[in-house]
């Protein structure tokens, strides 16, 4: 052909194939570089997109893969040119049989790459949402992130199983029965977990709040999906299951940033209550930890055995157990000092015993008369 021998013609075709292969390898290298540059130029507006070249387009691996395919094709062409068509045919049949497996493997790798990108995207979006929403706590952000990650894992897992021709119907039925068995065996755990999710959205308290949950009282130190942790005023750590928290009455003394305290005082029946009120209110106002608004007030409670009982009401800010007792102590001292200076007595209980005449006569009979 063209005046060339078969040997020379094969050499010419081999040279053409080899040169074409080299040009393809150079083109692949240039194409990968252009792809990297494209993603760098278009990933500046979103942080998570900057990870696309490293995840969905692992450039070094992609370059090696394409270069390997090109070299393999060049080798097949050279075998065919030099009369080894039978071997090329056998290799072709093997590749055709291998194509479904390669497609599934490639699809699985793409799903795994999508999983990594999806997890990063979810983290970026939830972090951004947490920065925009001031009332979202770190605990709520962590729980929301775990739930979102779980959904991404489930979605990618189901897609992978479907890609490998698993029967998802039977799998879902089996998972349903397994869920029923596990749910019956761990009902308490599931209740606590669901209650933890409810607490996350209802938010009756936050970490650092002074709360009373049923019979337990203290400062919230941690809120997990299963438990709420309090530090009692004795320094003990109290762990309460979230289902019990959800079923109990919760009193949050820190939510509004202030707390009203009461102190009962008994004054003498001879005292002028208007004067008592003025003296007590002025004394309480001078205490540093007492708020000016709402202003302290004095209300009558009852007529006691030895005194008229009045109740002093006042407010403190940033309530905590420590501030509560400091404020009460300071107020009691101030009231005692002010009443003493005003000459108003705080009487203690007094009982008068009046024996009956019969009792006096009986006692007289028991006492021997002096001789």
Account of the protein in words:
The protein is built from 11 helices and 8 strands. The chain is α+β, with helices and mostly antiparallel strands and about 375 residues long. It folds into 3 domains: about 130 residues; about 80 residues, SH3 type barrels (Roll), CATH 2.30.30; about 80 residues, Alpha-Beta Plaits. The chain has a 5-stranded antiparallel sheet with strand order 4-3-2-1-5. α1 packs antiparallel against α3 and α4 packs antiparallel against α5. About 5% of the residues have low confidence.
What spatial form do the alpha-carbon principal axes imply?
A: elongated
Strand fraction? 5-15%
Radius of gyration: 42 Å
For the largest beta-sheet, the strand count, sense and barrel status come to: 5 strands, antiparallel
Order of secondary-structure elements:
HHHHHHHEEEEHEEHEEHH
- Label the structural class: alpha+beta
- Stretches where pLDDT falls below 50 for ≥5 residues? 43-57
Overall pLDDT metric? 77
């Amino acid at each position: 052909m063209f005046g060339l021998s078969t040997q020379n013609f094969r050499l010419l075709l081999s040279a053409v194939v080899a040169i074409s292969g080299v040009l393809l390898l150079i083109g692949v290298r240039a194409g990968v570089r252009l792809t990297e540059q494209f993603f760098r130029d278009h990933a500046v507006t979103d942080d998570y997109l900057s990870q696309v070249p490293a995840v969905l387009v692992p450039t070094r691996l992609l370059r090696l893969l394409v270069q390997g395919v090109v070299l393999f094709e060049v080798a097949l062409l050279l075998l065919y040119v030099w009369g080894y068509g039978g071997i090329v045919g056998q290799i072709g049949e093997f590749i055709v049989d291998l194509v479904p497996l390669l497609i599934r493997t490639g699809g699985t790798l793409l799903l795994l790459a999508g999983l990594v990108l999806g997890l990063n995207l979810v983290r970026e979006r939830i972090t951004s949402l947490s920065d925009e929403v001031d009332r979202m706590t770190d605990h709520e952000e962590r729980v929301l992130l775990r739930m979102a990650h779980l959904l991404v894992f489930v979605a990618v897992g189901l897609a992978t199983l479907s890609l490998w021709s698993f029967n998802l119907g039977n799998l879902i039925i089996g998972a349903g029965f397994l869920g029923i068995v596990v749910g019956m065996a761990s009902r308490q755990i599931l209740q606590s977990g669901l209650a933890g999710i409810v607490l996350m959205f209802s938010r009756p308290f936050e970490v650092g709040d002074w709360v009373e949950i049923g019979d337990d009282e203290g400062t919230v130190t941690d809120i997990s999906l299963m438990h709420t942790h309090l530090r009692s005023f004795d320094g003990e750590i109290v762990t309460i299951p979230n289902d019990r928290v959800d079923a109990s009455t919760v009193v949050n003394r820190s939510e509004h940033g202030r707390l009203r305290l009461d102190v009962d005082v008994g004054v003498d029946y001879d005292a002028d209550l208007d004067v008592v009120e003025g003296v007590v209110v002025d004394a309480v106002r001078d205490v540093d930890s007492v708020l000016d608004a709402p202003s302290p007030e004095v209300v009558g409670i009852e007529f006691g055995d030895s005194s008229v009982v009045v109740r002093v009401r006042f407010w403190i800010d940033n309530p905590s157990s420590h501030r509560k007792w400091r404020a009460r102590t300071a107020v009691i001292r101030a009231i005692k000092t002010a009443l003493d200076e005003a000459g108003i007595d705080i009487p203690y209980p007094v009982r008068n015993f009046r024996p009956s005449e019969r009792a006096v006569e009986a006692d007289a009979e028991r006492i021997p008369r002096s001789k």
